[in-house]
């Protein structure tokens, strides 16, 4: 798997590596499928995590471990959406806004998780090159995927908050392709947010919520 960490090409003075490019392209496709509420978003997210795991395994243990968590959440999302298929008027999953209790729980989990993961990364520097922003992006991604799995419109807000840190962090650390992809993520998130928001207004507040 060493070729995944080799250079694919150079653009604007930035060296683009294969794993960065392939993994993030799959991530972009997964986000687009999530916008369309296609259950195939989850296998694509799993595949993106698997590619990045292969690239990181053996030399970046922390990054590889994060991809394992992402893959597990992708499996959970697949299970949830398989159960929820057909609940929407068009045969897909139904989407909704989270309750205030769910929002509070996700906010507390995100804050506590970020602190815990950042302290872990700080204690073991080999796990991350930038502990606090890296922890924020990792935990934010997991929370966003969880909200997506539950069909919550807040999924898109979580991705926007991840983008605000992800774009400058990736550029600063030489992952230019990831930075560019995060910019495209931002545009897709805004379109997806609008689509899910409008769809949620056609359903009762908690109707179609997956348990």
TrEMBL record:
The keyword Cell membrane applies. Pfam families: NMN_transporter. The keyword Cytoplasm does not apply. This is Nicotinamide mononucleotide transporter family protein. Keywords: Cell membrane, Membrane, Transmembrane, Transmembrane helix, Transport. It is found in: Cell membrane. The chain crosses the membrane at residues 12-34, 46-79, 104-124, 136-162, 174-193. It is a multi-pass membrane protein. Belongs to the nicotinamide ribonucleoside (NR) uptake permease (TC 4.B.1) family. InterPro entries: NMN_transpt_PnuC. Signal peptide: none annotated. Its main location: membrane. It comes from the Bacteria.
């Amino acid at each position: 798997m060493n070729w995944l960490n080799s250079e694919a090409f150079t653009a604007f003075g930035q060296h683009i590596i294969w794993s960065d490019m392939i993994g993030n392209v799959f991530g972009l496709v997964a986000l687009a499928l999530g916008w369309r509420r296609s259950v195939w978003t989850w296998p694509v997210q799993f595949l993106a995590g698997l590619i990045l795991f292969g690239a990181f395994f053996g030399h970046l243990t922390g990054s590889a471990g994060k991809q394992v968590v992402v893959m597990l959440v992708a499996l959970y999302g697949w299970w949830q959406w398989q159960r929820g298929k057909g609940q929407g008027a068009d045969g897909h999953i139904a989407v909704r806004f989270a309750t205030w209790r769910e929002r509070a729980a996700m906010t507390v989990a995100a804050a506590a998780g970020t602190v815990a993961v950042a302290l872990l990364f700080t204690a073991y520097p080999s796990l991350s090159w930038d502990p606090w922003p890296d922890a924020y992006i990792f935990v934010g991604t997991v929370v966003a995927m969880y909200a997506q799995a539950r069909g919550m419109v807040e999924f898109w807000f979580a991705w926007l908050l991840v983008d605000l840190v992800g774009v400058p962090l990736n550029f600063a650390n030489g992952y230019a392709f990831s930075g560019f992809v995060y910019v495209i993520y931002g545009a897709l998130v805004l379109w997806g947010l609008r689509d899910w928001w409008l769809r949620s207004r056609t359903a009762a507040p908690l109707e179609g919520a997956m348990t």
